[in-house]
Design goal:
231 residues, mainly alpha
């Protein structure tokens, strides 16, 4: 009750060790105004138990400045419900190494609207398991600017349904190295629209003989004369 009565100005003068000493049961009483006004030095003092006790409303009130200084142990303490409360600006503010410690449930819980804030460097920092954890709906929202961050290992481990969910303009924006990382087993998942969107450079320098051999008749018929000409 006493904590709940503190203004953001009053809370702002509390030392880091005092913040760390706040009982987890009392964390819930902190107002969103106070949470939004947290200083980075104070946030650094939050224990994992305190972070885990933040309500979704409190998480939504965290400033991007605070989230940009979040530590890996603090990030790992966030639940999927808390992660689902993050918006695009907050997600974009998270350090790459913090996003990398999110559980697969956390990753699956990220709202599609929030995914819009994901940077290519953050995408590159995701583990293969995290990429697999993305739903087809989440994958379908990825932009070409974000997808350039996909590593060859991530591409090779994508589920067929997720690969097929990538927009055609995203496929056309992939590097030849990324195209080459698609396994022959995954090739069958590529849609006619995706194949038609491939540039001649992607076809000539990205596709290998094993991939082309795995094309089915529908996929082969989707090739344009320009694409077929560079095979």
């Amino acid at each position: 009750v006493q904590l709940a009565a503190l203004t953001s100005t009053q809370f702002g003068v509390l030392a880091t060790d005092v913040i760390a000493a706040i009982a987890t049961a009392d964390v819930d009483t902190l107002t969103t105004t106070v949470i939004a006004a947290l200083k980075s030095t104070q946030a650094a003092g939050l224990t994992t138990d305190q972070v885990a006790h933040l309500s979704t409303t409190q998480v939504a009130a965290l400033s991007t400045g605070i989230l940009s200084t979040l530590g890996t142990t603090q990030g790992a303490a966030l639940s999927d419900t808390q992660v689902a409360a993050l918006n695009s600006a907050q997600l974009a503010a998270l350090p790459t190494n913090v996003l990398a410690v999110f559980s697969t449930d956390d990753i699956a819980a990220i709202k599609t609207a929030a995914l819009a804030g994901l940077k290519s460097s953050q995408v590159a920092g995701l583990t293969s398991d995290q990429v697999v954890a993305l739903s087809t709906t989440q994958v379908s929202t990825l932009t070409s600017a974000q997808a350039v961050g996909l590593t060859t290992n991530q591409v090779a481990n994508m589920q067929d349904a997720d690969l097929a969910a990538l927009k055609s303009n995203v496929i056309s924006g992939l590097s030849t190295t990324q195209i080459n990382a698609i396994t022959s087993d995954q090739v069958d998942a590529l849609t006619s629209q995706q194949i038609g969107a491939l540039s001649t450079l992607q076809v000539s320098a990205g596709l290998n003989s094993q991939q082309i051999a795995a094309f089915n008749s529908v996929q082969l018929s989707a090739l344009t004369s320009a694409q077929f000409g560079v095979l």
